[in-house]
Prior knowledge:
With 390 residues, this protein is mainly beta.
Amino acid sequence: xxxxxxxxxxxxxxxxxxxxxxxxxxxxxxxxxxxxxxxxxxxxxxxxxxxxxxxxxxxxxxxxxxxxxxxxxxxxxxxxxxxxxxxxxxxxxxxxxxxxxxxxxxxxxxxxxxxxxxxxxxxxxxxxxxxxxxxxxxxxxxxxxxxxxxxxxxxxxxxxxxxxxxxxxxxxxxxxxxxxxxxxxxxxxxxxxxxxxxxxxxxxxxxxxxxxxxxxxxxxxxxxxxxxxxxxxxxxxxxxxxxxxxxxxxxxxxxxxxxxxxxxxxxxxxxxxxxxxxxxxxxxxxxxxxxxxxxxxxxxxxxxxxxxxxxxxxxxxxxxxxxxxxxxxxxxxxxxxxxxxxxxxxxxxxxxxxxxxxxxxxxxxxxxxxxxxxxxxxxxxxxxxxxxxx
Length: 390
């Protein structure tokens, strides 16, 4: 984070409060979306047993369609949320997942999906904690709805999976694009890039696929690395420049396709678009960069709105949590000064950049001794907070 982003709101951050979160509006919007999904057709089930993709075909198991629940799910409200040890703190509510330790998790309307210390996938909802008998390195979810995605690694291939937490069933499972060549050394493995409404985006070893979840059919989009596209929200893709770069490039574009979009180039590695793609937050993959270039901290950009000011200076670094709505998001702030290893959970307003502490000193930023060196807490991004340094 540069000096301008640190200095501008030093004085007003402590005195300014973000506008109150419109919970009624969020719930009403969720009801409207649920009704719209019932009108257009559910996201579950396959309409055919074959998906033709990029000139080839793969046989897929048919799925039985089931209606979506009429009422909002028990966790449809987005609150300031974090996981610490065997507890998920959902606002003032605490969800125990004992004896498991949460290393990464996401929120869906039906419940939380998390990885434990062995990378095994579990669901925590109002009925308790259940194992899915699967494992993955990271999880992906939309900012609303009941779906979660992951990639399962098998001996010679990976399989892209989309799972309905409310219906307790898989909607998509496909090995397309993820055959692992013999003796291959992969810089980046396949991953679920994004779930955006009824569409999934698969970053495969062959390239990027766009997948219609309702029909269980996909189309090939581009021959790029599995991480070339960072996320997709409201139909807007965040993708690196140049697209052909094998690693996680630092120059990012936002647009509806991989060849069109805004002229602005953003910088960062991980990317988090607000629900209507109004704002973009970026941050590095490494939680503890040894040298602080301009892109190494959490950064806030305006995509279709003016960018807000800097985040409060009392924090040396920030780690993104999740968008609560199109303007407000959560982040963990690493304190500067004498308590430099202590983190607070904050809610921040992207328009004003004012932040409020909602969980003071909820954890310390330490890392496990054995790789991967993960932090003791997790935020609902689907991936652990990792120190890549030795």
